[in-house]
Every structure is written in structure tokens, then in C-alpha cells.
Amino acid sequence: MNTLKRIYIMAYITLVVILVSQGVSGVFSGAFVIGWAGVALTGLPLLIFLTNAMVFRRTARSRPDLPLTLGIALVGLGLAAWQTFIGDGPDQIVAMAAIGVIGLLFYIRWYSRFGRTPSPEIAIGAALPEFELTNADGEIIAASTLSQKPTVFIFIRGNWCPLCMGQVNEISNAADRFAAAGLRVVFIAPQSQGKTRALANGRPAEIEFYSDAGNAAARRLKIHNPAGLPLGMEILGYRSETVLPTLIGVDAGGRIRWTHETDNYRVRPAPDTIIQAMTN
After folding, report:
1. Is 250 in contact with 153 (CB distance < 8 Å)?
2. Residue 139 Cα distances to 63, 136, 187, 193, angstroms
3. Cα Dmax for the chain
4. Model confidence, pTM
5. For the domain that residue 141 is a member of, what is the CATH number?
6. Would residue 179 be called left, alpha or beta, if left means φ above 0 and alpha means ψ between -120 and 50 degrees?
7. Statement to judge: residues 21 and 138 lie in one domain
8. Considering 111, 128, 154, which residue would you say is the last residue of a domain?
């Protein structure tokens, strides 16, 4: 299933760009303006969302079903249908809009969701299993060493993931609040030491970054995600297997107090939610 998803997401992003380009071009052509505007609307909101997340890296979450984005796309489909069936426009207009809406529904209801079940290895009240990580300087650090104080382990998919980077930026901006609450924050990604060093560069000293070589820690915790990398991203030096975004909060000594195992890569807890869960 993940193999289909990694192919789908690259094909869908390409489709969105085509829909927006074709729609805008059609509007400027002056013929069937309403229909072509509708075609553009089936792809433009999501394109803006993804572009904003990738360029500015401030987006850490969204609503699971993207109601505004879907609503605008449905309006676009309605405009395209009017143009084709009432305004004597070509069938191509409504066909393209329909494909855009179907693609969006697959993105919202299928691609964005993992269909995961809670990992038995990180049950609340249990001791955190031992695993090893590599810091930005290449040192091997045991999880038990990190969890000698209350710690939040945050597993992210890597520097390539825009919402992961939004989460990193958001929590980095709240570093003083985590420190005031007595919490250590540890980000973990299945990527090279060099990529982790780049991720850590310029971040607050209170936020720590580690590599999970070979995804061994994720596998130990049963939160790995085979074939979770979008197709073609391997050329940037990432493995096709990645990790399911996961937060694990432990008390001093490593007993698990709180977890967040999202089933949607666009849904992640805010800093205040994490701090409250770990301090109440």
C-alpha cells in the first residue's frame, strides 16, 4: 500500500500544478473563463498550502479533512460543470475539474492517513525500551542516558518533510517554555548525521537532535514506516523506509507517561499540549 502512496503523491502534486497552470492559462485566454477558473480552484488551495509549508516551514498541522480546501475545490467543480453543461464549454473543463477533486479526496482520505495501530512497545506506564541514537557530532547516545530527566522524544520523518520542519520550528520557538517546565526535547530522524547537523544548526541549545541510523530505533519501537518516502526523494540521500511521526514523553528514569501516535501526517500536537500533558 505504501508503494502506491509514494507513487501517488508525486503524481498528484504534478497533477495539481497542471490543473492550476491550465486553469490560469484558460482564464487569461478569455474563453470559458468561469470554467477554467473552476479548474484552477480544484488545485490552487492545496498548492498554496503545500508551497507555504515547503518554503516557509512554519506549518506544523492542519485540520485532518481540510474542509476549506475541499470546499473551494467543490466550488471549482461546480463552476466547471456549469461551464460545460450550461455555458457550452468543452467537456475537457469538467473532466479536469473532476479529476482534481477526486485527487484531492484521495489525498485527504487515503494518502494523509497511516491506518496505524498503537505500538505495544510504547504503552503508557511501561519502561521505554533501550535504543541508541547518533548526535550531530557522531557520538552514540543511549536512550536511557537521555531519559535521566523528563524527556519528550519526537520522531520526525526527516528534513525533506515540510510539516516535520514546521514542527521543529514551532517547538524551537517554544524552547524556553519547555526548559521552564523542566523538559528535555529530543528530535529523532532516520537520516544521515550530516542532515541532522544541518537541522540542528542555529537551533536553541535546549533542543537536541539525533539521527536514527538505519531506522533501528523506530524498528525497535515498532513505529517504522516501510516505503514511506515519496517516490524520487531517494536522490536527496534519504531511505525509502521512514518513521511514523510519534511523540513519546517519559518521566525521569524512562517510564512512559504520554504518547502521541498520530494517524495523519498533518495532525501534530502543539507545544502547549505537550507541556500540559507532561506536567499535569
Report:
1. yes
2. 38, 7, 15, 10
3. 71
4. 0.95
5. 3.40.30.10
6. alpha
7. no
8. 111
Pure H helices in the chain: 2-29, 33-41, 44-56, 67-85, 91-106, 143-146, 162-173, 175-180, 193-200, 216-221, 271-279
Contact criterion met (CB below 8 Å) for 125 and 259 = no
Give pLDDT tens digits along the chain (280 positions).
799 999 999 999 999 999 999 999 999 999 999 999 999 999 999 999 999 999 999 899 999 999 999 999 999 999 999 999 999 999 999 999 999 999 999 999 999 999 999 999 999 999 999 999 999 889 999 999 999 999 999 999 999 999 999 999 999 999 999 999 999 999 999 999 999 999 999 999 999 999 998 999 999 999 999 999 999 999 999 999 999 999 999 999 999 999 999 999 999 999 999 999 999 8
Tell me if residue 156 falls in helix, strand or coil.
Answer: coil
Q: Are residues 91 and 185 in the same domain?
A: no
Q: Judge if 196 and 129 occupy the same domain.
A: yes
CB contact at 8 A, 161 and 244:
no
Per the structure, how many domains does the chain have? 2
- Tell me, yes or no, whether 181 and 87 share the same domain: no
Instruction: State the Cα–Cα distance between residues 92 and 94, nearest whole angstrom.
Output: 6
β-strand partners of 141: 133
> What stretches of 86-226 show up as alpha helix (H) in DSSP?
91-106, 143-146, 162-173, 175-180, 193-200, 216-221
Show the domain range for 257: 120-279
Asked whether residue 126 falls in the same domain as residue 234, the answer is yes
Rounded to an integer, what distance in angstroms lies between the CA atom of residue 71 and that of residue 129? 44
